[in-house]
Amino acid sequence: MIILGIESSCDETAAAIVKDGRTILASVVSSQIKLHQPFSGVVPELASRAHVSRINSVISQAMGSGRVRLDAIAVTVGPGLIGSLLVGKMTAQTLGWAMNLPVIGVNHIEGHLLSPLLSDKTVAPPFLGLVVSGGHTDLILVKKWGHFRTLGRTRDDAAGEAFDKVAKMMGLGYPGGPIVEKMARWGRGSLCPFPRAWLPGTWDFSFSGLKTAVLYKLRTQQHWTTSQKRDVCAGFQTAVIDVLVGKTIAAAKAHGVKTIVVGGGVIANRVLRDEFLRKTREERFRLSLAPVSLSTDNAAMIAAAAYFKSKHTPKSALHSLRVRSQMGLS
Ligand code: KG4
Ligand code: ZN
User: Fold this and answer.
1) Are residues 46 and 170 in the same domain?
2) Which residue in 11, 107, 239, 319 has the fewest CB atoms around it within 10 Å?
């Protein structure tokens, strides 16, 4: 089954063609980072306008010569920015009508959750998934295909959002994750210990207290040298990683699953990847990480999620294309 995936929920316009949920035939991502950089965050109106102007050419590039025979079109229907989501949805529905193809609506978080399956061809349920991105930090138990149970999620900031906000506080630029990681590489985290919110008794996360602790630390002196900023970044990053890895492994143990999968932009972080590798090896879990190239937003993960959804959902349920925004509009 060959699916054209379309993703436009935030600041990447993306299209991809994926065969049987596991093989990427083409993947094109047009990033809007440069457009939003001056504002240190995504400006929704600018994002949706940029999607409108880029989406047709991104799809054409993914389709290449156009010789591939599609079986369906998949599109992200939420969560995300409402204007941006609508651009993808309208495009998918128009193409579906013109090409006489079914259109499958996909949840963006499900896309991130299943993104590791595009490189690890044998991983299958039961598994515990962590989706760790700029908008989400969710622990999801997948006992069998089509059964997603959210065990916990962030109560405030997502992990990636905390990286972005800490970078902004320190005047380091946007998006913050890769910059903080680079700074932390040369920092001494032990000189800047920060608290960890373990929230015992739940599988939820919280990163806003940590972010505030960094803010208070920054207020303790007027001028910060680059070397001191590196120490702050290292201390912050270690605190985030400890909680992400610690809680994921504890949840997998508690629910008796031996496989852990991790997707979302933050898993591009090398230190987080290494820590997951080290700890899962120690505790004898099978680990499947989204490759760095598929950790941030892309359309291949949307096409893959649509494939697995179409295999495990009754046909009648596949055409529901309600668009949900993060603000709960519908
Ligand atoms: O998955 P994604 O592209 O978008 C959402 O669905 O939110 O994730 C973007 C997030 C941003 O917050 C960015 O700072 C973070 O992923 N990120 C990183 C790294 N690369 C991207 N966070 C930490 N370390 C990185 N290397
Ligand atoms: Zn995402």
Assistant:
1) no
2) 319
Q: Are 278 and 305 members of one domain?
A: no
Provide the domain limits for residue 51.
Answer: 2-114+294-318
Separation CA 193–CA 187 (nearest Å):
12
Ligand 1 centroid to 326 CA: how many Å?
Answer: 17
Distance from C-alpha of 160 to C-alpha of 78, rounded to nearest angstrom? 18
pLDDT at 318 (0 to 100): 54
Given the CA of residue 270, which atom of ligand 1 is nearest to it?
Answer: 26
State the pTM of this model: 0.93
CA of 24 to the centre of ligand 2 (A): 18
In this prediction, residue 319 carries a pLDDT of 52
Is residue 148 classed as helix, strand or coil in its secondary structure? Answer: strand
Are 307 and 276 in the same domain? no
Ligand nearest, relative to CA of residue 182: 1
First vs last C-alpha separation in the chain: 30
